[in-house]
């Protein structure tokens, strides 16, 4: 699978094919040169997408799997994974501050590594979010069916997909407004959880006579009851819970002030992770002995619901179902946005059918939104029509390494960008956003990615690794065909 490398960027940092319309603030439809009026995301939209965009079922339910594996040391797993994600986002943020682009890391891979790398990472990223759309349609459909059983789960799932195609087709501002309120629900819920959980941990909750609960951290086999190896294994799970952070950087490129939005999204990543993820897990393992948590299979049995149950609040499971449902809606909304923007950005570079770059009067890539939704519908129907065929499981497991591929490409792209920059350009970027300890930060991300893959192979996650390799190989095999068509289209356009 040959991948073209070594593509040079112009000294000014502009793309080698200007005017294709995937930079922030572009006003041209790449499909036909039609002028469009692009709505912009406001600062409050970016703030809330940044704060709550990545909090989904992987936190509210999936954190139980990390705790079951690592015990109280799950806090360390989330902290280590958080450092890797923070560094990757700072690397991305530095490139975005220099040149905001809706295609984000795909565009930076094209400029700093080559067309082949950009093509592969772009399609993998789109494939990942289509899988997430299908998965969350299944989860959300199950929740709605439990509340309103007059419709089957698959019908609720399709209705949810229909809702978000309508939202995303309306305008980017509508997407931002919906995401603002959905993310607000998650942020408020987690903040309340942290406050009341801390009161429980310190023995300050009214009516709770158990006193402080910090002994739960050491009385059940110690801080790391399954050894430090389980902490590293936990990182492999945590990395995927954090994936989606980059959506805030992509969205910032469509904001009223891209530079400010990108800096804001990047600089708040670390405390977001510390507060919402590390803080929440610390509360859970302090309040409840890790080995007494039930197996987390849904919102009602998740670790957050278990902590709320300790408060003696009636309807704890329903409260968590409502929060998880809001999280599912938020992830579907953000996922459709990310998938459609990536697909349209690929079309602008001829990696995807050019029709998917078509935008409406408000700058929304209509065809890309529709095709991304259809992908989610297909995945959703596969699960309901062929539940025992293993096709849905393959779709989900084959996206397992996408986060790692994206982080690796971000690190390599940033490294190549910095290597080619003049001292004057480096100084100019430093005034906006600068990577600490370059190139050590890049090396840490690359080594961390490799370590997670090794751990997955050792820890029995070979299905995810090899199915991801198969999906990547399939995309790579098509690259020579895409490259020929791309060059032919460029020659025709230049004639």
TrEMBL record:
Residues 45-480 form the Amino acid permease/ SLC12A domain. Residues 1-37 are annotated as: Disordered. This is Gamma-aminobutyrate:proton symporter, AAT family (TC 2.A.3.1.5). The keyword Amino-acid biosynthesis does not apply. The chain crosses the membrane at residues 46-68, 74-97, 118-148, 154-172, 184-207, 227-249, 269-290, 322-343, 364-386, 392-415, 436-458, 464-482. It is found in: Membrane. The keyword Signal does not apply. Its main location: membrane. It comes from Corynebacterium variabile. It is a multi-pass membrane protein. GO terms for cellular component: membrane. One of its GO terms (biological process) is transmembrane transport. Belongs to the amino acid-polyamine-organocation (APC) superfamily. Amino acid transporter (AAT) (TC 2.A.3.1) family. InterPro entries: AA-permease/SLC12A_dom. PANTHER family: GABA PERMEASE, GAMMA-AMINOBUTYRIC ACID PERMEASE. Pfam families: AA_permease. Keywords: Amino-acid transport, Membrane, Transmembrane, Transmembrane helix, Transport.
